[in-house]
Amino acid sequence: MMKIIFLSPRQRNSLTLTLNAWAKVALSLCVLGVPLGAGLVIGMKSDRGDASLRAALAAVQAELDLQHQELQLGVANADKKIAAYSQKLAEIQARMVRMDALGERITDIAGLDKGEFDFTQAPAVGGPAEYDDSGGEEITDADAADLSAVDQGASTIISSDLQDLFAELEARMDNREQQLDLLRVMIVDRDLRRENTISGRPVTKGWMSSRYGKRTDPFNGRKVWHLGVDFAGKEGSDVISVASGIVTRSESYKGYGELVEIDHGEGYVTRYGHNKTNLVEVGDLVKKGQVVAQMGSTGRSTGPHVHFEVYKNGRRVDPASYIRRTIR
């Protein structure tokens, strides 16, 4: 049995309660159960809050991990693009260096004026400035939208700048290639004209000893017509072709002695007489300046020299104008 006594200080009375075993159990549950229950409720709520917080933190961490992966992927892609741009830029620059060197070499070989084809300088351009109707001052709504787009896409601007750079380089390369093509055409045309046009002297060494036209015959003293020009020199010196062509005669012929005849096309034929030795045969293709014979004194001759004749459409003409001709 358990007794509980309540005292009243004002009335000075007391109240006594007698509790049996079940009453004591119920009282203990009331006294101890409330704090325990409250603690249990608080604990359950705390566990639920921690779980929510952990879930939120896990979600944030997952988002950060995803952004980090995307950042790494973006950096890798950017590195690849930069490497590709760098490689393309290096290739373009290498091509330009090679073309500039080739252009300068061709210019030197061709003997052209460097002021006309200067591969070390950018081509001259110009023109009046161009303005739009607005004067270029007012910023419209479209311009503002463009500015906003610029803030949102810096990578697009960089890519556009690189594309503009490559476009400029390719334009410069096209300009170089056009100049080189023009040079090729000019050189080929000039070389063809040089090769096929009769010009210059038929000897590398010697002097003109007799001109074309009326002269005194060295054998009988009579006035006769000299059908060519004579170049005297040392026996055995070179006799050269004054233009490219085909050898149509290489033999001993009448008063010419050892004679070489070359057909240059378009009605032109040249003859080289009194040779000591002919170095070409009929049917040979010869180039301008090629040695075709050695100077001698065969045939009707008073000493080592070459008798040079020019035919145009089957008629002999004065070789002097062809000897003095300059091909540019």
Walk me through what this model shows.
This protein has 328 residues and is α+β, with helices and mostly antiparallel strands. Among the domains are: 2-77; 207-323, Distorted Sandwich (Glucose Permease (Domain IIA)). It is built from four helices and 14 strands. The protein has helices at 21-110, 141-152, 154-196, 320-323, and strands at residues 2-8, 13-19, 207-210, 213-216, 223-226, 229-232, 238-240, 245-252, 258-265, 268-278, 285-286, 291-295, 305-312, 315-317. Strands 3, 6, 7, 8, 9, 10, 11, 12, 13 and 14 form a ten-stranded antiparallel beta sheet that branches. A two-stranded antiparallel ribbon has the order 1-2. The longest helix has 90 residues, at 21-110. The radius of gyration is 54 Å and the shape is rod-shaped. The protein starts with a strand and ends in a 5-residue tail after the last helix. The model has no long low-confidence stretch (mean pLDDT 77).
